[in-house]
Specification:
Two copies of one chain form a homodimer. Chain A has 229 residues and is of the alpha/beta class. Chain A has one domain: 3-Layer(aba) Sandwich (Rossmann fold). Chain A is built from eight helices and five strands. A five-stranded parallel sheet of chain A has the order 3-2-1-4-5, with helices on both faces. In chain A, helix 1 packs across helix 7 and helix 7 packs across helix 8. The longest helix of chain A has 16 residues. Chain A starts with 6 loop residues before the first strand and ends in a 12-residue tail after the last helix.
Chain lengths: 229, 229
């Protein structure tokens, strides 16, 4: 990669959307620093997927940082006492993690400023999303404002651009884009409650959105589901 | 405290400003959940001060959460290879920690949402501050926007108010206010590089701002300085 490539911090979870986002950032010529979080999620096996994806898609570096959100609780994703629902939710579901994308973007911003990177990518998606308030365009735009008011780089430098390139795409469109860019979706994990081998439950919101996306894209789904569940 | 008191998460560092902020929030009738961070700061002895202050000022709970900002570096406060300056800085100083208040407020927001608390207090101060971009009113206001766009509580509930009551006060005014509210400033630590007993260096930006503040307030400074430094 040429020395003058712009640098970007790219949030990757190990899931389909963020893998596609990383592939897109790479295609657009960004030198990518991938960032994942061990935040007490019950599906921490997704971090193994994130490591594979970062390597496959040529991230210059991949860091996994620990965050204490699991200690705060308040979500089915971080609190084992709250069950992952098997039926579609109305409104904001119990898998919503309080202020997760605000925390993730804040940490990405901190690393970006240290790296002198002016770009942050997040795979947030407002169309086929799961009803999360922090996956909407107005949230991303507001966070960009915070990033440029609350940092040295925002005041004295070139500032920050928060990219959420999938925000208005359907899951089917995301999958088609990723396949064109060479994303190996068999390595991604979307399930909120995968087994220890990373196989999906096929029933949670995230598994259902993913399966519907592959069906609508008209391509076969390489996802492994646990047949016993 | 009455059952219907509004609840607030109050960021406390162990320093003078945040102790005064907690005292003020208590006086205003808030039931306070104090929050501090072990973020790799070289002056982690301030966390002992935070524990004492939280207890003295009647916080209902005090949590100290670990954050991996020290792993990212980029500041004299978290990187032992960068010296704390002994002379006043021009512009944004090397003690600036990239996006620190964005990260701290994001974590406070996450806890506040779990607690169903609608208020967050931060002791940011834009007058006698050290040149940090994330201590300015426009930053606080922008973060409040993010908080209300990126959370369930912001969409479906009463939303969040970010209070920065000291933002336009001088250090002398803060000290006078705190003394009126009964803050025991002998327990607070402001120094960026205190010794292991928490005694200040008397030379860093933070020690100098504090000493000037006490002088201007016309009250004696209970701060312990290390005479050998």
């Amino acid at each position: 990669m040429a020395a003058d490539c712009p640098e970007a911090v790219v949030l990757i979870s190990g899931g389909l959307d963020s893998a596609t986002t990383l592939a897109l950032a790479r295609e657009q010529g960004f030198d990518c620093y991938a960032l994942s979080f061990d935040y007490g999620q019950r599906h921490a096996v997704e971090l193994d997927a994130a490591r594979i994806i970062a390597a496959q898609l040529g991230a210059r570096q991949h860091r996994v940082l620990s965050l204490p959100m699991g200690q705060l609780g308040g979500s089915a994703l971080t609190d084992r006492d709250i069950e992952i629902p098997c039926t579609p939710s109305q409104g904001i579901p119990v898998t919503y993690v309080p202020a997760r994308n605000t925390v993730f973007l804040a940490m990405a911003l901190s690393w970006a400023e240290v790296l002198h990177a002016n770009h942050i990518f997040i795979g947030a998606n407002a169309v086929d999303y799961s009803g999360y308030p922090d996956c909407r365009p107005q949230f991303i735009q507001a966070f960009e404002g915070v990033a440029n008011l609350g940092t040295r780089e925002g005041i004295e430098g070139k500032g920050f651009e928060i990219h959420a390139p999938l925000i208005n795409m359907t899951k089917a469109e995301i999958i088609k884009l990723g396949l064109r860019l060479g994303v190996d979706y068999s390595q991604t994990i979307s399930c909120y409650a995968p087994d220890e081998r990373g196989r999906g439950c096929s029933q949670c919101d995230s598994c259902r959105l993913r399966a519907t996306g592959f069906a609508e894209a008209g391509v076969s789904d390489p996802t492994c589901y646990n047949p016993a569940r």
